[in-house]
Amino acid sequence: MSVLLSALANIQNQLSSVLALKGAWSSIASAIFVLIGLRAVFRWKNVLEDIDGPEPESWLYGNMLQLHFPRVLGEFEFKWQERFGPVYRFKGCFGRNGLMVCDPHVIQQILSNDDIGFGPAIDYASYAMFGPNSVQIRRGDTHKRFRSVLDRGFTATAVREYEPILQDLATDLSEKWEADATADSQPGALEVTHSLRVATLGAISRAMLGRTTQDLGETFMYYNFETVALSSTQDEKAVLVNGIASYLPQGAMRSLIYLPLAANRIIRAAYSSMDNLGKEIVKERLQYAKQGIDTSGDFYGKLIGEKENEAAPNIMTADEIVAQTSLILLAGQDTTANAMAFTLFELAKNQELQNALRTEIYDLGPKDINSERSSAVIYDGMPLLNAVIKESLRMYPAEPWADRVALRDTVVSLRESITTISGQQLNQVPLRKGDSIVLGFGAYQRQTPRWGSDPHVFRPSRWLLDEGNIVRNDGIGPYANLLTFGGGDYTCLGILEMQVLLCTILRKFTITLPSHEQEMRPCLRNVIMPMLPNGERGARLCVSRLL
C-alpha cells in the first residue's frame, strides 16, 4: 500500500504542475485525482487488457498525447494499424484501456449502436456550442425526427438548388484574391484559409438561413470565428481534463460551461448570438407565411412552410428549428474550408496535375450557370475534378478520429477475429459501461489493402476508371466509400462548394507554394487545420493571375 500511496502522491504532483493550480482549487483537483487513481488501480480487469496494442507513453496520459498532438496526420495510429491490425487496444489517461477501431464495417456498427454514444469531451462541446435541444444532443425518437427533417436540406436535389449562391460566393472570393495578390503590383503569398472560412460560412448562412455574412454583423462574425478557433487550441491540460471527465456524471460535465473561464464566455456569447439570429429568422419567416409570402428561398423558410402545413410529415416546431441554428452554422464551415485549403496545397505542389485539372475545367466545366442543364450535373461529369476532391477527403478527413464511450454494457462484433495476448480468438469484444472507443476514420482511409500500395500518396488517378476496382467495393459511407461523413446518410453542401470553388479559382489563378513554406501540417485532434512548419495556422499560398 505504501508503494501505491507513493505513486499517487507523485501523480498528484504531476497534476498540480500540469494544471498550474493553486490554493483550494489545487486541493480539490488533487482529491479528485487521488480518487480517480484509486479507482484506476483497483478497477476490475476486462477483455480489453488482453488485446494487444501500443505501449503507453505514461500512466498519466497513456497514448492520448500521441493521438492529440502528432507532428503530421496519423503519425502514430497509421503505424499502429499496420502493426496491430484494424482493431486493437490503446491506453487512455490514468492507464485506462480503450478500443481503437479502424475497420469500416465495425465503425458503422458502432455508430448505429444506441448503447454507444459521444465521449465526454464531444458531449460537453456539443452541449455548450449547440445547446440542449440540438439534433446533436437529443436522443431517441426526437433525434430521429430532427434528423429526418434536417436531412431534407442535404439531398442531392436540395444541394443543387444552392448552386447559384455558391457561384456568387466563388466569384467574390476570386475577386478578393485577385485584389489582394496584386495590391502592390507584386503577386505574393496570401493566407487563404481565413477567406475560405468566410466563403463557406457565407454559403451555409445564405443557403440555410437566407442571410449574407454582412447581414450577420461584426459581433456575430467575431464570436463565430473565436468559437471555431477554440476547437483547435487544445493542450495537455485539455487532454487531462478530458480524461478526468470520463469519470464524471454527464450532468456534472455539462455544468462546467458555467465556470467563469475565458473560453466559456466566448462559447456562451457565440451560442447566444446564434440563438438570437435563429429566433429573428424564424419569427420573420412565420410572419411572411401568415401574409401568404413565399418563404421557400432558403432552408429555414422551407421548414417554416412545412410547419404551416399540418399534413406535412415529420415537422419541427418553431423553437426546435431555432435550436438547430448554432449547429448548422458551425458544423460545416471550417471543415469545408480546410478541405479546400489542403486541396489547393496539393495542387500547388503538383503543377502538372493542376494544369490537367484546369484543362478539364475549360473543356468540360459549366459555361453558363443559367443554362437549362444544371451545372451541378456538369460537375458530376468531370472525372478529374471529382477524383481530386475524393483524394483530398481521403487523405485529409475533417475528423481523423472520433471518440465514443459505452453508455451501457454492450458487445461489438468483429468482421475478422483477433488473437489476444493470451492466445484467445475473439469474434466479438464485450464492452463495459464507461469503456472508451476511438473510431479511426483517417487510418481506415490509409489502409493498403483498401486503397492500394501507396495510400500515403496524394494520387487522384486511383479514383479513375482504370483503378476503379480499388475504391468501388464495400459500399462504406454515403460518398465514395469514405468515412469522411461518419455514419450519416447524406453528404454535405461541401462537395458542391468544393466543385464550384475549384472551377472558379483555377479558371483565374495559378496556385504555387512560397519557396520557404513547403509543407502544411494537420493541427490537433478532430479538426484538421492547415499548419505551417513554424506553427502558424493557416495556409499561405501564392495566388497568381493567369495570363
Q: Mind describing the biggest β-sheet?
A: 5 strands, mixed
Number of strands: 10
Would you identify the CATH H-level superfamily? Cytochrome P450
* Total number of distinct structural domains: 1
Rg, nearest Å: 24 Å
What's the arrangement of strands in the largest beta sheet? 1-2-8-5-3
Pathway: Secondary metabolite biosynthesis; terpenoid biosynthesis
Organism: Mycena chlorophos
Keywords: Heme, Iron, Membrane, Metal-binding, Monooxygenase, Oxidoreductase, Transmembrane, Transmembrane helix
Protein name: Cytochrome P450
Write the layout of secondary structure elements.
Layout: H1 2-19, H2 23-42, H3 64-68, H4 77-84, E1 87-91, E2 97-101, H5 104-111, E3 116-118, H6 120-130, H7 140-150, H8 156-161, H9 163-181, E4 189-191, H10 192-209, H11 213-216, H12 218-230, H13 236-245, H14 250-254, H15 262-290, H16 299-308, H17 318-322, H18 325-331, H19 333-349, H20 351-364, H21 375-380, H22 383-395, E5 402-406, E6 410-419, E7 425-431, E8 436-439, H23 441-444, H24 448-451, H25 468-471, H26 493-508, E9 509-512, E10 540-545
Parallel strand pairs: 2-8
Antiparallel strand pairs: 1-2, 3-5, 4-10, 5-8, 6-7, 9-10
Helix pairs in contact: 1-2, 9-10, 9-26, 10-19, 12-15, 15-16, 19-22, 19-26
